[in-house]
Amino acid sequence: MEMMKAVGFYRYLPIEDPESLLDLKIEKPRPKGRDVLVRVNAIAVNPVDYKVRSPKEKVEKSPKILGWDVAGVIEEVGPDTTLFKPGDAVYYAGDITRPGGNSQFHLVDERIVGKKPSSLNDAEAAALPLTTITAYEALFDRMNIPSEPTKNKNKSLLIIGAAGGVGSIAIQLAKWAGLKVIGTASRAESIAWVKEQGADHTINHYEEFFPQLQEVGHETVDYILCLNATDKHWVNMAKVIAPQGKICSIVETDTPLDLTLLKSKSATFAWELMFTRPMYQTEDMIEQHHLLNKVADLVDNKVVKTTLTNRLSPINAENLRKAHQLLEQENAIGKTVVENFS
């Protein structure tokens, strides 16, 4: 039995606890079906990591492995694969119903894997997959925004929580599609980052949206992407969404949403979860492969840039605990990546 290094846990503990994430040795998997086995070179952290790891009474019999952002090289392919071969450099987010990528080798279905942008190193590439899929699906699948700039003339998008991982890539994709982009940010450094990603304007999400939007020339916005506290911003969103506009959120609510606020405007509300396609093995699951390849081309053509802001090495429990702590502060700018197993 061949073993490999991994970072995981048995008990769901606060990140300050040294047992919240552990250095482990686990069995190296072998690919079957349409799975590919990837040698993991870099991983990024996302809120899903600490949400899954959050303290609870449950104790795992076998280690729980997190990590849903990977850049690496294909080591081996399953017998039914058609999209990749050993030696291909790839990036992907994976499937939350399966072990994550915080291990030396990782199994993933090829239909949710993309070719790594050739102009990026592994750390720069690992910053992108989960947030890219989330932003792309939210904009172009859930809100059905055309990807042709000529069709979005004078159309506007408000991104709530624009400085984080998803917001950083959503700004870039929205500008590529020809939208006017207003991003919310409240600190000098986050405002600067949002503008650096291409936002036309910024407003403060701690203040009422309507008067701030008026100041930058918008009575309403055609689309809203909510990446922060859906229920907290709901009344503000309902007030500024345009008639027949569309709102998409990625943040679960603590209280029910009053959808009646959207009725007079015939506005649409949609959820986005990038794990839906792999979780339910949907017929269009391969769309994640296609969109990651499309964004890789946009990166290599200098249309989209990596959102990497913080880099740690090597991949071990200590550095992943540091990465989780950074993210749990909930004021992250861009993405944190951990690279290289020692």
From TrEMBL:
Keywords: Cytoplasm, Metal-binding, NADP, Oxidoreductase, RNA-binding, Zinc
GO terms for MF: oxidoreductase activity; RNA binding; zinc ion binding
Residue intervals of the Enoyl reductase (ER) domain: 19-338
Source taxon at top rank: Bacteria
InterPro entries referenced in this protein's UniProt entry, alphabetically: ADH-like_N (IPR013154), ADH_Zn_typ-1 (IPR014182), ER (IPR020843), GroES-like_sf (IPR011032), NAD(P)-bd_dom_sf (IPR036291), Quin_OxRdtase/zeta-crystal_CS (IPR002364), Zinc-ADH_QOR/CCCR (IPR051603)
Membership in a protein family: Belongs to the zinc-containing alcohol dehydrogenase family. Quinone oxidoreductase subfamily.
Protein's recorded name: Zinc-type alcohol dehydrogenase-like protein
Taxonomy of the source species: Bacteria, Bacillati, Bacillota, Bacilli, Bacillales
